[in-house]
Amino acid sequence: MKVEQIYTGCLAHAAYYIESKGVAAVFDPLREVQPYLDRAKKDNAQIKYVFETHFHADFVSGHLDLKKKAGSKIVFGPGAKPAYEAITAEDGQIFEVGDYKVKVIHTPGHTMESTTYLLIDEHGKEHGIITGDTLFIGDVGRPDLAQHVVSELTEEKLAGHLYDSLRNKIMPLSDDLIVYPNHGAGSACGKMMSKETTDTLGHQKKVNYALRPDMTKEEFIKELLTGLTTPPGYFPKNVLMNIKGYESLDNIMDRATTPYSPDAFEAVANETGALVLDTRNAEDFAKGFIPNSINIGLEGSFAQWVGEMIPDIKQEILLVTYDGKEEEAITRLSRVGYDNTVGFLKGGFESWKDSGKEFETANRISAQDLEEAMNDEKPLIIDVRKKSEYDSEHLIGAINIPLNEINQHLAEFPKDSTFVLHCAGGYRSMIASSILKQRGWQDFADVKGGFEDLSKTSLPKSEYVCPSTML
After folding, report:
1. Which intervals of the chain form a coiled coil (predicted)?
2. What's the CATH class of domain 247-354?
3. Could you identify which of 205, 274, 280, 310 might form a hypothetical disulfide with 318, taking C-beta atoms 3.0 to 4.6 angstroms apart as the criterion?
4. CATH class of residue range 364-454
């Protein structure tokens, strides 16, 4: 049986495609559906079903556009109540895809409607399981998201359901089944996912902490909930979009791909209050940018950081991109529900600069520059990496304000003295720089190359101490 994994690195997301005798199915598709339509066309196949493992939080699914464009039937697991036409399957129900079969296994825990799909080949042999966010490689789905939509679904209740699902529904299955999860390392839907994106169930039973056979439910709940970070603010809003429905990506693209001259761009920004989002890389942004614009570069985890740093999912957005990157930016925004892009700057930042309009720059320094400065000025160093990264190793004397918490800690950034920002490599620190510039801070710099370069200097660094050895 051939199962094609379609992996999107910037979201650490995996969709799946199967086809048999001209009949195809897609599992957990992204918002832009043309790649799935093209794949089916290549096989001269019709996409009969779109299977959803659950109502996703970290992206807006493409199921509605596939239903519209391919006539596909949408399938959810037991208990799902979408606000549009879809099949709500029963536990154990079987769907035929050509000579293949797809069996519904209800596995509540990550969410109550969470479902695993057992794939059965043309010979009747069980091939693998598409697990959604129930089981990852090295991890399981976090149980603290649904309560942001339904308050009585506490993380403890869901963790208990997940324990039962894993023990009663997943672990009894054959060891030779291939596990096909919805996410890999880098996703915020778990806490310790592997970089591998498939594995056998047998191997996961041996190495996945959540599948230890001697684990009690109480131990499972405690271990699962320990170390969970706050989920991104856009997650509940994406869940609601997936439940209630959304506007077609075609309509969004038509509206968003409106080119504006510098004068028109400035006028629209002033009239609408739109956020100016500059998607160029950090180095180019630092050399010149439109005042009050925010930098989140396309070359990084763009959609995730948009979701973290722009609180209002309905915020109107004006884009500054490299030429030819406009549609990519719009698509990646829409993947996480930011559908109100109203246009882009024609000719990019260079057209703004050439028009003689005002622009700003950002101060970047090298790791060596900071090393020399510490001999004299000793500026405050602010590390905007995640707490886990900071705890692993950091410059002695640096304070940690994770990028996604910056708006809650603005008072800790001095306005009467110099400070220096850094992250791991310079991507996140420039996001932080652009936000601080927008809020009026001027006397600071960020370190290009981040901690990767700082670790090579003689600046004193902490050493990680394993908690079990601490007195």
Report:
1. none
2. alpha beta
3. 274
4. alpha beta
**How many CB atoms neighbour CB 178 within 10 A?**
16
User: How far, in Å, CA of 56 to CA of 384, rounded?
Assistant: 28
Tokens linked to 440: 């009026």
Strand order in the sheet with 294-295: 259-260, 341-345, 317-320, 275-278, 294-295
- Copy the structure tokens of residue 244: 């209630």
Domain 247-354 identical in fold to domain 364-454: yes
Task: Using the CB atoms, write b or e for 401-411: b if 16+ within 10 Å.
Answer: bbbbebeeeee
pLDDT, tens digit, 9 for 90 and up, residues 48-96: 999 999 999 999 999 999 999 999 999 999 999 999 999 999 999 999 9
Here the tokens at position 166 are: 């894993």
* Contact by Cβ (8 Å): 51, 130: yes
pLDDT tens-digit profile of 412-447?
Answer: 999 999 999 999 999 999 999 999 999 999 999 999
Tokens for 99?
């000579």
- 355-400 pLDDT, tens per residue? 999 999 999 999 999 999 888 888 999 999 999 899 999 999 999 9
Which residue intervals of 61-175 are DSSP H helices? Answer: 63-70, 155-165
Within 163-290, strands assigned E span: 178-181, 199-200, 259-260, 275-278
Cβ contact 407:384 at 8 Å = no
The domain locations on the chain are: 4-232, 247-354, 364-454
Task: Please report, to the nearest 10 degrees, the dihedral formed by the alpha carbons of residues 435, 436, 439, 441 taken in order.
Answer: -160
CATH class label, 4-232? alpha beta
Distance in Å from the first CA to the final CA of the chain: 54
